[in-house]
Amino acid sequence: MPTNNENFLNAIFRANPRYTLVSKLNITPLHRNMLGSLWDDTNLFGVLQPKGALNIGVKAVSIDTADLYTAVQQPALLPERVRFSTDEVVKKDILRLILDGVLEIYLNDRFVCEEEACAILCNNSPLIEPTSQLARLSREALLYVQELRVEDTLTLGARLYFFNRKPTSAYWRRRFHNPMAVASHLGIQTGDYTNKQLNRHWSKIKPSAASQGWYIWSQPHRQPDESEHGRFINCILVQKLR
Questions:
Q1: 140 and 212 inside one domain
Q2: ∠ CA 32-33-34 to the nearest 5 degrees?
Q3: The pTM of the whole model exceeds 0.85
Q4: pLDDT digits over 89-104, tens only?
Q5: How many folded domains does the chain comprise?
Q6: Domain presence at residue 1
Q7: Tell me: the pLDDT tens digits for 57-92?
Q8: Distance CA 238, CA 138 (A)
């Protein structure tokens, strides 16, 4: 991602003070469950845990990111190995940490991160126009929640999740009058192309009472967990219903 200031690595940085760095040894059972299979990654250091009652989400961090976060607990220059690096990947990684709110950078007489930093560093970045229905819908959803100024992650997630829902109407009731009509439209009946592709790597599982109305597949070698599959099927629904 191009930036307005190619020398931004020479700026003063600090660790985002809204977080506390927690190692794997001290992670709570709740956060361990949230990490899922990432827990077994040998490069995982731990998490950044919001301080106090801040509801800004927990972030998993690698060993390298934890080292960098620790190095700038107080405002300081980045370590020389980072500051003088000519590797474009390093620049992109640091920029990503700024935009993700892990690090703050001193610009225009204040420390900024996330959207404030993006407005300064990235406003010359060329916009990539979406080329598919799903990409266009995703962009519209992000533009929508961007205007909400909501920091509560649960509320923000719900707004994203429910974006573009349509109210039930006589038209939709006629079009999808039973489960078979829905399955036919999605192409997931026996013999359909989408169904064949799903069945190559996934196994269909019966939804629980709380998940009625969903079509759920699980990877055969993993224990079924309905919470992990909704996003995949949502993609199919978005492409088909538009």
A1: no
A2: 90
A3: no
A4: 898 999 999 999 999 9
A5: 3
A6: no
A7: 788 999 999 999 999 999 999 999 998 888 888 989
A8: 10
